[in-house]
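Board notes, transcribed. Complex of a protein with 6-O-phosphono-beta-D-glucopyranose.
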Amino acid sequence: MAALILFGGGGDLAMRMLLPSLYFLEHDGLLPEGLKIIGAARSEETPDEYVAKVHAAVKARAETDRLWDEQSWSRMKARLDYLAVDATSADSLKGLKAKVGDDAVTSFLAVSPSLYARIVTAMKAAGLAERNARIVLEKPVGRDLKSFLEIDDAVAHAFREDQVFRIDHYLGKETVQNLIALRFGNTIFEPLWNNLTIDHVQITIGETVGVGDRWPYYDEYGALRDMLQNHMLQLLCLVAMEPPSDLDPDSVRNEKVKVLRSLRPITPDEAERVTVRGQYVAGVSEGKPVKGYDEERGEDSDTETFVAIRADIDNWRWAGVPFFMRTGKRLPEKRTEIVIQFKPVPHSIFDRDDRGEVQANRMVIELQPEEDISLTVMNKRPGLSQRMQLQPIKMSLSWGVDGKGDAPPRRRIAYERLLLDAMAGDSTLFVRRDEAEQAWRWVDEVAEAWAESGQKPHEYVAGTWGPDAADMLVARTGRDWNTADA
Ligand code: BG6
């Protein structure tokens, strides 16, 4: 038998993401037979009270997706249990151990990372870190390389590396996995996937939300540590890595870590040229007036809510190909995309003054709001015009046009996939220790350069695409950021 323990089981992540994910898996008949789901948190409540809270959270979410049904819920309810614990105390955790006995236990730490080290130590003492146990750690693990290593050393004292699952929920997104299929399941892209054909790569994660009441956490981390150190660098790795020999966790992660090691360090002198940090001031977001970050927080802060960086990967494949990354809160759209911008044709045989000028091919891997991979190619504009006219045509590479592929599935919560994989012991879509370590090493240099410069973040008005300096970062190289309708 198996058990899933959700530490922080009554918290925001559990209620908004993890428990709805488990409900959807239950609905689709994908949860392991006999699996128990145990919420564990400080709050002194009975299992019935906990189940009532889970019911409300899960039902609200499932109804939005039109997937609520009482049978699925009653199956899930039968698995649920709750125990009030102090997770940092081995004595307190013994009660939990008594509940799971010798079951294979997967424990998900959906609590503040500052508690991770103490919790894993207590888990080991309470017998919750046995050979068949697994632990899932939500990001961010640490706030810099030093704190990451401190936490991770405590984890390594309690668990072997193959028992540790460091989550980056971006890796659970369908299109991210589709990118692997596209690159390595076809022969036609890989020969082009290099500096001979690709001009540059852009990765954008735009969010319309502000920081809101998350600021106690956010103010300590900022966009660099909250988004770039993990989600954005993971996407960069999947675009840039060499073909792994198979899909084994280590084969894939060996390739990703090589990319991280090849990232050109950003020195304090370089930082001003290749990085931009911004913070939103009052503006209009989705048609409504919104406050600036400092006003929400109630005092002045130098934390960035926007970051744009030019990364260079110093290896044969990518020499000379800039990777531009940007992410921010209070941007005009919730949009996540990777743009592969190919080089223009070396010589155009078509009239330059014509409306049909040759545009360079562009592949857009869109994760949000839609999930799709599209390729823009040039095509002849139909008709009898004497002069050949061209037009760009956007082709979807994900769902096809012949209607023979599977229909686009329901948009799943990324955690559905990751919870299943962690329980099955497959760590391909999780972050290995050396990956996180390299990512922190690179990000630390940026953070240190910013601290040394003493400069405040550039202001940008809420509802815009960040400070002008972010446009300049790209424009300086003769390029520009992709816009949704380009
Ligand atoms: C989280 C960050 O990891 O990702 C949040 O902590 C951010 O600040 C969120 O809002 C974005 O995730 P998604 O899947 O909505 O793009």
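Residues 207, 226, 336 surround 6-O-phosphono-beta-D-glucopyranose (CB under 6 Å). The longest strand covers residues 198-206.
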